Please model this.
Amino acid sequence: MKEFKVAIIGQIARWKGQDVFIKAAKLLHPKYPEIKFLLIGDVLFEKEEELQFKNHLLDLAKDCDYIEFLGHRENVLELLKDIDILVHASIREEPFGRVIIEGMASRKPVVAAGIGGPLEIIEDGVSGLLFEPGNYKGLADEIECLALDNYKYQFLANNGYSRFTKMFDIRNTVFNIEKLLVDCMEK
Model:
């Protein structure tokens, strides 16, 4: 297997599930040492709870040279070009999950926790993969499946991109709003 890069992008916060991501990485590494795991993002508000969670993540990943903390980055779209799989591992509902559509727009397969916004964005098995929130073994299984099955990898990447262009591309949104306004004015 070629070197593979799997990334989770977002602020470091307990509800974002970075610990689930790290546990999945630790489960996969002995079998697939060529997979690298990237955590992109940092704490947004230096509250005691968030700083403690970041330290917990650093401890959890201690001595794991295959897990890299990249910190806050402004060039997320550039970073997406260099990864193979995007993970969204929130353990509680969030309304949308912009990073999911950014991954889809970048033609990267997305593996997301099946809760909140991802349930509306991703068609499981068609335009991405969903796993049970908090289930690091389920996440590891989905990553392993994509790393080993190039057909499924390409299928999900292409369908994710197609879904992005149909449902979330800003040009389509603007066109649909303009059409709605014109239709309303004609009535």
About this structure: The longest helix spans residues 150-167. Strands lie at 4-9, 35-40, 67-71, 85-88, 110-113, 129-131.
